Amino acid sequence: MTGFIHIIVPHEDFTLESGADKLTSYSFGSGAAEHLFCSVCGVKSFYQPRSHPEAWSVNAYCLDDRPELAIEFFDGREWEQARQQLD
To answer: Which residues have C-beta within 8 Å of that of residue 48, sequence separation ≥ 6?
Structure first.
């Protein structure tokens, strides 16, 4: 429902150019993921997923120049089983 298309970006390849002071963080469940959203508009443009602790998940909808993407569907309900199939 949030309209999030994940682009997994390794930490070393990601630079936040502005807006860090406007980010608000929250966690739930296991606490392994860090969900970040803009405290002004509420958009979740990127976050630290528990499925990829070495990378950020960037929301493709938040990019001005969106690359061509190959979409792979992920079963969030059966998270543990689906995670094993990612690698």
So the answer is: 33, 34, 35, 36, 56, 57
